[in-house]
Amino acid sequence: MRVAIVEGDGIGREVIPAAVEVLDVLGLPIEKVPLELGYGKWEKCGIAIDDNDLDVLKSCDCVLFGAITTPPDPNYKSVLLTIRKELDMYANIRPIKPLPGVTGVTGRSDFDFVIVRENTEGMYSSIEEFHEDVSYTKRVVSRKGSERIAKTACRLAKERHNDLTIVHKSNVLKSDNMFLNTCREVAESENVGHRDMLVDAMAYSLMTYPERYDVVVTTNLFGDILSDMSAALVGSLGLAPSANIGDKYAFFEPVHGSGPDIAGKGIANPIAAILSMKMMLEWMGLQKEADIVEEAVGRCITEKITTPDLGGSASTIEVGRAIADHVRNMLDG
Ligand code: NAD
Ligand code: IPM
Ligand code: MN
Where does the Isopropylmalate dehydrogenase-like domain start and stop, copy by copy (predicted)? Predict the structure, then answer.
């Protein structure tokens, strides 16, 4: 396996080395291919990602990615969106699962759901027009795009509790009828239990009744917002991992961004990055190793070796090292 390692900007440069330290302890036959991309590169060379970088990414089996700063400058095209589109990674899988001994804003830990976010269209079409007094962004919802994300969500639902919630805003955004109807048709044909929710009501419901949900499928922007919000149920944005999956490539990254307010302080929580690496191991079919990493994360939190977002005083490096040590001990024992 060849894995591109992209630290990116800000805390991406702190959390990815911690995830790589844990990966290295597993001693797997993985070739790591470091690649510099992002805002830092743009400032230096005027380009954040070039064709050569895309070729390197495509020459790898998958990517372990930190975070990239995306300024609002219309001349700066988001690296992340470019990669997701170029590698056609249409499914963004974001598990929302409690970790031992941590509770989030609601104080509860009786939920376990997965947000399946459409990752290549919706409000992220990049079809935009800017004029002096008005700007436009075209929202794209296609049958093919809706069908393939619905199939991914149904596949996941069948491995879990066979319960799909389709989240949309078709009362106002009529383009969402395509998404809703296609998801319903796919769920019917796959015999997956399903219901639908308007996104605003869903935001409330996820915070109030998170235990009701199993697999949540939604369009790009709604999935982006609901996943950051749901990380508050788990306890920190620094705990939320994700996987961008296509038919050929996959790309693993924490849900969070480059954390400019804490970058350089050495206090970013590396667990979201480490659990993203764990999702990469699962994608590679290495379930035993993935379970070891998850167990090591749980042990580290239970021992209260945590960064300030979880109320502790440990550094990124200390948390990464504690998890790596637990992995080593489990492999030895
Ligand atoms: P952010 O996710 O970087 O930070 C939001 C808040 O969560 C901040 O207070 C931050 O300190 C905290 N936080 C995030 N990750 C944490 C961690 N691991 N440990 C502890 N605290 C953590 O969101 P933002 O500030 O809105 O965005 C910053 C930049 O990142 C923007 O340029 C944005 O476009 C970009 N971004 C990139 C990605 C990505 O590359 N995957 C994702 C989201 C945002
Ligand atoms: C995420 C991020 C990205 C997104 C941005 C940085 C383009 O917020 O991965 O959730 O909105 O998809
Ligand atoms: Mn986001």
Answer: 2-323
